[in-house]
Design brief:
Blueprint: E1 2-6, H1 13-22, E2 27-32, H2 44-59, E3 65-68, H3 71-85, E4 91-92, H4 98-108, E5 111-116, H5 124-133, E6 138-143, H6 147-153, H7 156-168, E7 174-179, H8 188-196, E8 204-206, H9 209-219, E9 234-238, E10 241-243, H10 253-259, E11 263-264
Parallel strand pairs: 1-2, 1-3, 2-9, 3-4, 5-6, 5-7, 7-8, 9-11
Antiparallel strand pairs: 9-10
């Protein structure tokens, strides 16, 4: 079995690690676009063009499913990716976990914050998500200036500064934070710590990695088997070129987990 993941950068690590934990025997293909990142400032057509190039590079390795582990690409390019690749290759998009967070908030009366890039916060896309899945919950958008770029760089000082700034913009009584960018899951512990304050253990975090992993396995017609032998290989593609995990990836537990797999350079 082989699962491919794509993103502009290392935001795909969280979902890739989730797949690795669920199926240690699965081969993984990680297709990113260091030549073209960041995708966020590009217009929709340009994002789609870059996403298609990334997806085609991954598809050439004949995976059983492709995870679009990028919120920006899922918003702008998912229809084009599915039109070109499905039904031969199932394509799984990434959507911020607004629905489960809002459902929990309605039950408890708590507030929800959505941490997302400035371009996503307040966008028609995020507004539609809240209108469709918010279920009347009190939801606040928090623009996280520079956080995705800081995580991509692996620079500890930049990450700390960006997390702190976003935490300061987050209402004090928020009980759940939706991580609206796949990069943010890589620093979940730091986000929770920054928000701890008088909240005890801090708010719950809602990411998307576990959900997209589960959906990818379903679409590939396989079940989770965390007890399987850890024999899965790893192929890394940078803008279509075979490469190795970038050094910044090893800053994160997810990257180090993936680095434990035998890397394919052929």
């Amino acid at each position: 079995m082989k699962i491919a993941l794509m993103d502009s950068g290392i935001g795909l690590l969280a979902a890739a690690a989730a797949v690795r934990r669920a199926r240690p025997d699965a081969d993984l293909v990680l297709s990113s676009d260091p030549d073209g990142l960041p995708w966020g400032p590009r217009d929709s057509d340009d994002i789609t063009r870059h996403a298609l190039l990334c997806a085609r590079a991954a598809a050439a390795h004949r995976p059983d499913a492709l995870i679009v582990a990028c919120n920006t690409a899922s918003v702008h390019a998912l229809p084009a990716l599915r039109a070109e690749l499905e039904p031969a290759l199932p394509v799984i998009g990434t959507v911020p976990a607004v629905k489960p967070a809002a459902a929990a908030a309605v039950r408890t009366g708590g507030r929800v914050a959505i941490w997302a890039t400035p371009a996503t916060t307040g966008s028609p896309y995020q507004r539609r998500l809240i209108e469709e899945f918010g279920n009347g919950a009190d939801i606040t958008g928090v623009p996280c200036h520079g956080l995705a770029d800081a995580i991509e760089s692996g620079d500890e000082d930049l990450i700390t500064s960006a997390v702190r700034a976003a935490a300061e913009r987050t209402p004090a009584d928020v009980e759940t934070v939706v991580l609206g960018c796949t990069h943010y899951e890589l620093v979940g512990n730091r986000i929770r710590e920054a928000l701890r304050g008088a909240r005890g253990e801090g708010p719950a975090l809602q990411g998307s990695a576990a959900a997209v992993c589960a959906q990818a396995l379903r679409r590939a017609n396989v079940r989770p088997a965390p007890e399987a032998a850890p024999v899965g290989g790893l192929t890394v593609l940078h803008s279509g070129r075979v490469a190795a995990l970038p050094e910044a990836a090893l800053t994160y537990a997810e990257g180090r987990l993936l680095a434990g797999a035998p890397a394919s350079l052929t």
